Amino acid sequence: MNSFRIACTLLRNNLQIYGFYLIVLVVTVATYYNFVAIQYNDTFAQITARLQSATVASMTCGFVLMCTVVFFMWHANGFFFKQRQKETGIYMLMGISTSKIGRVFAIESMLLGMLSLVLGLAAGILFSKLFFMLLGKAMYLEAEIPFMISIKAIIQLVIVFGIIFVVLGFKNFREVQKSQLIQMIHATKAKPVVPKLNYAKGILGVILIAAGYAVASGFTRWISDLLSASMATLILVSFGTYFFFGSFLTIVFSRWVKAKHMVYKNVRLVSVSNIFFRLKSNYRSLAMTAILAAATVTAFSVSLAFKQYAKDHELIEAPYSISYEGSDPAVKVKVMEAIGASEHQLLGWNPIHMVPGKVEYTSGQKVDFNNDAYIIGYSELAKTLQFLQYPGSETLLRQIDPDKTEAVFIINANTLASPIRVGGEEIRWNGNTYTLKQAKQVPVTGNVPKFGNKNIYVMPDSAYEKARERGPEITFNGIRITGQENSEPLVRTLAGIVPDGKVNGTMKQFAQDYYTLGTFFFLGLIMSIVFVLATFSTIYFKILSDAFSDQEQYAILKKIGMSKQEVERSVYLQVGIAFVLPVIVGIAHSVVAMDMLEKVMNVNFFLQMVLGIGLFVLVMVAFYVGISKNYTKMVYEE
User: Which of 140, 158, 262, 482 holds its CA 20 to 30 A away from the CA of 606?
Assistant: First the structure.
């Protein structure tokens, strides 16, 4: 029988072992196909021609997905090889050369990859229509995206995953070639040794994590470039997590094992000792689990946050049905008559009085382009927020009410996210110096030409009145009508009435931000599902490996009188520690990541973060209970 037939037979016999691994690979391949298909879908590209958010987001998610799946496959492949070391030794004992055994294992690995590629591609194509429907809904697209099979996406998918599977097959071949018979035969009897304590690496791990957290929390003060701050945080925290589980945790457990009053109680000694002695071989999977947990919680929380942010930001960008600039009473009368003659009804009219101004920061900070901004009085802002029925306006107005030497900074409506911090800064305007009390983003003019891209400074009414006398004062008219979705004919009519024809209709400027945020919302949810599967799989293979190793140990403990209830308590404690440690570290990482996002977008995502963490913890608890029961059955069979 040649190597290929043997590999096919082995794959068929081991499909039950590969089950969970195969499911993750199929989901990953299907997801990657749809991510890539976004770039090559001509209809989708035409619909979203004026923005690149979907393409950029899909490329980013695809890259992150590939990095995740490579780490996961490398880890799972190592687990499978470890579990088959004795099988390899038996083949060698039968006289089969290591080269042939290596070829068989390499071919089996590549066949498994091909199987996952075929199944995943079929699933990806089958659900691509649903994928684009949901993506279009998340992006508020009205046009229908027809079903199509992207040949370019298939080619890219086959090339990328083909390279990964070939590399893993070659790795298996090399591992078997380097194996020795005695080592393979006694692989399952090999006992873990006491891990060496490395205080330098342990302390370095904690320092790196702390440094990463510090960069994330203070990047607005130290690093102006968001990308640099994000990469610095990612690198510091990733290496810190690696050293934390590899060295610092070893130091902690070595002290714990020596604390007799804590360990020599019930079944703790067995559980703690098992974890401690296996840290040398398990710390990589623990670190990877922590990073995957962080990615899962962050992806899900960010998706929810973007969804809510897009909903809240609509009022800031498009507070009015119609708007125009002008203070001529005659024009106002004609506009009202035109609205009355249309099929729409006038719901409200909000004139906003403001003056253009030059604002300079005493610190030299450049916030406004050419120092150009708009100045309004506090009472004008209060009137506007009350007109718009802005949620929480009463409390907000009490908080920001400026005294004679204070002002309030209103971020322009065109800014989707900004890490600018100007609270406490001093500004010079109209020959006077003011201290910025707070920085807020609230609806005033909306994201309309001339007004939407300029920041607004709210001054005390007395200061504004003095500036108003010097002029020139301009009036922005915000109008609300019924049926604004169908107001384009009315807008064209009003354009013939208003001087220069500059009338802003039902605002769609916010649509681009909706497209962007909607894309990340949907793709973030998909990524969080993949991350959850990868997290579960990593923990599953790690726990399963420990269970195989513990069978002999628990068999001996059973013979000397250890009851099934005691075994269960020991297993639940051991598995619990393996779950809790990486999950806690991962959640801490995700909290820092969400805090960084809050600073960038100047909003609070506490509720979304709590929801993301809570849901992840619930799912992990359910998985923990299930795998603990499975572990107990494996090590304690009646």
Answer: 140
